[in-house]
Specification:
This protein has about 220 residues and is α+β, with helices and mostly antiparallel strands. The chain has one domain: Aminohydrolase, N-terminal nucleophile (Ntn) domain (Glutamine Phosphoribosylpyrophosphate, subunit 1, domain 1). About 35% of the residues lie in helices and about 25% in strands. It contains 5 helices and 10 strands, in the order ββββααββββααββα. The strands form 2 sheets. It has a 6-stranded antiparallel β-sheet, with helices on one face. A 4-stranded antiparallel β-sheet has the order 3-4-5-6, covered by helices on one side. α1 packs across α2 and α4 runs antiparallel to α5. The termini are far apart.
Length: about 220
């Protein structure tokens, strides 16, 4: 049904989630993140409480594994769920219930986890992870969006596509003098709620935002 990436940027201490699926309004369901705490992606017959309560438990100091396993133990639909989390220490945990629809699975790496269900195949998560790793050093939001694009190019959701979202928390550490309008200082929450090709539309909105931010910075330099 869905493919996503959750990640932490060790340079800025930002957290992010990028996701695409074949139902509307994925941005209101799957991605959850809080500055200084962590990020959660809850998908496959979504239980949003896994995201909301998962962040609360991470904020209390629980590890992603302990937080999610505890919540899933009380979830009657756990066998249908897919959920992943990352915390401020970069620890990750990903879970896929046995009744998720094939293909389903995940791949975890340093400071990230990629997961999906009802996918065209394992190539989707592998492509996302590979692109994210290769883009080390690029802006965090660019890496997340690039991973999402790679997943779509590899086949994505086998039913098709309908919505996508990119959620990034503000940077805790910003190196260099801040610009008048520095995207790193703000929460980035871009949602394409219903579109025949939502990932390119997400990229279009993202690039428009970056262009306008650059223009605002240039105008500030002239003042």
């Amino acid at each position: 049904m869905t493919f996503s990436i959750i990640a932490r940027d060790p340079a800025s201490a930002s957290f992010g989630v990028a996701v695409c699926t074949a139902v509307p309004c994925v941005g209101a369901l799957v991605p959850h993140a809080k500055s200084g705490v962590g990020a959660v992606a809850t998908q496959s017959y979504v239980n949003v409480d896994l995201g909301r309560d998962g962040l609360k438990l991470l904020e209390l100091g629980m590890s992603p594994r302990a937080a999610l396993e505890g919540l899933l133990a009380d979830d009657a639909g756990a066998a249908l769920r897919q959920v992943a989390a990352i915390d401020a220490q970069g620890r990750t945990f990903s879970y896929s219930g046995k009744d998720c629809v094939e293909w389903f699975g995940s791949r975890e790496g340093t400071d990230y986890s990629v997961q999906g269900n009802m996918l065209a195949g394992q190539a989707v998560v592998d492509a996302m992870a590979d692109v994210f790793e290769r883009a080390a050093g690029a802006p965090f939001s660019v890496r997340l969006l690039g991973a999402l694009e790679a997943g779509q190019a590899a086949g994505g959701d086998k039913r098709g596509r309908q919505s996508a979202a990119l959620l990034v928390t503000p940077a805790v550490v910003v190196r260099g003098a801040p610009a008048d309008f520095d995207l790193r200082a703000y929460a980035l929450d871009i949602r394409v709620d219903e579109h025949p090709d939502p990932v390119p539309e997400l990229r279009r909105i993202f690039e428009l935002l970056r262009k306008q931010a650059a223009e605002e910075d240039a105008a500030g330099d002239d003042r």
